[in-house]
Amino acid sequence: MEIRSQNTDSTRYATLPLYSAQEPRLAERRTWKRETSSSNVDHSADSMFDADGPIGRTTEARGLGLTDVDAASSRYQPLPNPPAPSFTALDGTSSSRMPNKYASPPLLQGQQSSPLRTETTHSIDAPTHSGHSSLSHLGPPTPNFFTSQSELLHPSNKAENACPSDGDVLTSPWSWHSVPILLLALYATVFSAIFLTIAIMKPRWGERIGTHGSLTFANASLMSAIFAKTIELSFVTVLVTLLGQVLTRRAFAKTDPQKGISIAEMNMRTWIMQPGNLIVNWKEFRYANSIIGALVLLTALSAIWYTTASEALVSPKLKFGPVADRMLSGRVSTVYANAMYLGETCERPIQLALDEASATTCLQITYAGASFNHFSHYLRNWENAIGAGNASLGGTSYSQRPPPVAVMYDNTTIFGQWITPSSENITTDSRRHGRLVQNVTMAMPHAGIFNAVREPRNHIIQPDDLQGAGEYRVQASVPAPAMNVLCVGLTSEEMAPMIVNVTDPTNYVPNRTAVDDIFGWNPDAEVPETPWFPKLPIQYNTIVHIPPVWGPPAVSLLATPAEGASTSDHVLCAIRSTQYRDCTTWYNVAQSGGLLKVHCDDDPDNTIPYQSSQPDAPIGVWEANWKDIGGEWIRSLALNNGVSDANASSARLVTQFIPDWSENTDTILPSNRPTIAESLAVLAGGTALLSSLNAPFDHMWNYTDTILEEPVYQTFRARYSYKDYASGGTQNWQGIFYVILAVVFLFNLATLCYLSWNFIRQGYVTDYTEPQNLFALAINSPPSTALAGACGAGPSRKAMSKKWNVDIARTDTDVDGFSYEPQAIGSRHPHFFIRCREEELSPMISQSHPVTPVSRGLKYRRHRPPTINDAVYGAESPLIEQYQRLASSTTRNFKLTKLFPSAMKTNSTA
């Protein structure tokens, strides 16, 4: 490395930083001058160094790539006597007078060659060690400074070390800095508001999300996660920008002694961008214990948990909604208990053209299969109840006994209910009539609900619509099909009037019997209901009677128990059907199957009984049509095989369920087995379900034909709750996440308002909390005793809370013995640096009134300050006005006028 200097008696040429041949030259013109000094008579004349254009012939040196400056010596020209030193105040005005406090600033004392050098001159090969170094010549030197060891590495001229800004501090609100931030703030605000609204409203997405909906669950969850993540990222980005804008404006402000920013506050951006610092550097919290610190901590925690909060409260998930009243519709094709309709719709390969009895054959197979299946389930439930040691199975109440059970379509379990519409009681009834009397009524759910809930017009989401995860519950206010079985014990003598061989049923007149009052028979009626039998069945056998004409509603069964049984000789049972009005049908559906139940009378689940919808619905009207169904049903069970003493298994089992009875003992329900009436009711329960399938949802038939060519829709009252994809929490404790969503939205809204107002009013301020901007500012700032010892291990805890301000030094006036020729396209721009408020301010800054005055006309002349592009040759740098606005943005102008009347006048004139 070769360093050259040339000295004469009248002129001393000092080298400036030189440039390699490969590097472009500075596109500016620098002229510097130095006053003569009595202390340095060898350098009595100043010279001018023109860096504009090539400097003659240059030779490239090795090492640092410096160029030979000998060729440039011919261009040095002496300057005339320089003007007196000038002082630059905050307002950017120049004055030849300096404040008393700085009457003899260090920058003007001693040797003029370097304001921060001692009198002793060292050669390059003779290093010195004089303590700490100050690489910036802005303001007074700090204590313990030292002289650089190399004129090249540490040049001693402000002309060489000053950093005139080449960009605006306040940029346009429509710049590439501002517009993306405002768009992100708008996006974060709008969508965080949408997410908060969704979380509060908890909308149900219904058919919009599902297998056949607009979105599948997977896509809906993915979209929710994407939006939540983008909101979080936008929130973090905008929040960091907001923090940088607030802190930077505080750093510029000079109106309040408490203003300025600390290192701890500058470090708050890492809380948001690197949440792990909240754990690693938790001790730094005490030095950021301001309102801003608390808000930043709150928003940092909100940003951490925002995705989790949106997943808990916004992302769709399967859950049940509230029970809602609504009207449902179902198809109706026939009247209740229409045997002809059931025969026509019975699925079979043999049609009527091949066998005219194919319909009844199909029905009997259907009845037999369903009845024995239901009865098998019922007996199994009895076995389980006995094995569980249920002591309440006996007595007089049916409520504790196993309920009737049935199965439909192999995946729907049906439970009926034992009811006592007339307060039936086996003990009381048997005692009153002096014989065994058991009156059992079994209500079953309306089977038409099964098809109604699947009607497309009802828009009920089925499990398949939600990838098999759907579920719903329907409560229907419809009449319940019911089976009534009345069994009465008789002796062989009392059965004699009914044992006849009738050849012509149309002319037969039945005899009076001992049980006419119990069954309600009237032998003198136009169509008598009294049954007859060809013979008495032997033990373990049964014989049935099916009325040969339409009218009587019941089919009858005569059973003979085992010999020696402690009961009546024979038991006669009448089986009939009706529609009960005081019931509510419940239907629960899931992917695994359905559960169809009925709740009647005083059952707490009897929420909307049919009589509440139809108060005029009758009770106790037996359905005459059911007799045709009951006839085929009872034949299919081989319960009439006792005519030939066939000993059918079904008859044997039924006769074993006859309750015990004696004249001296009260008759009660057995606790170890069902009764014959209960068994027959369960066996006949399937016919009640088939009778209500495609039947009306009320007790009336308003059509002429009993079978409609085209089904019609009939509405009924219902309550409906369903499981679908909905937003909102699934657990009560998840409500805490509402705080996260609310905080994010409120901060997004506040950030949008703040940035919009400040960007439009002044513009985007260079964010000095960003590492690259802070580095450029700090490296061009003078050293500070506030950070003594921090160069190795970082700032101490005490230094974390010290306040710092951004100041400027003007470079277009002769403040320290140097003058700068204005740029070709505009004025010389100021130098920005940072300084601790506790330290002595630069002579360019008034310590007593560190406020940059701004005139009323200047402040309100234009909405936004001018930019560098607006610079005029020879005029004041636009950065001065930008700095003034930031430095005095919170101060009233009339106060500034009183404090700095002369400065205000000068500034207004400029």
Automatic annotation (TrEMBL):
The chain crosses the membrane at residues 181-201, 221-244, 287-306, 735-755. Residues 129-139 have a biased composition (Low complexity). Keywords: Membrane, Transmembrane, Transmembrane helix. It comes from the Eukaryota. Residues 1-60, 73-141 are annotated as: Disordered. The keyword Transmembrane helix applies. Residues 25-36 have a biased composition (Basic and acidic residues). Residues 1-13, 109-123 have a biased composition (Polar residues). The keyword Transmembrane helix applies. This is Uncharacterized protein. It comes from Exophiala mesophila (Black yeast-like fungus).
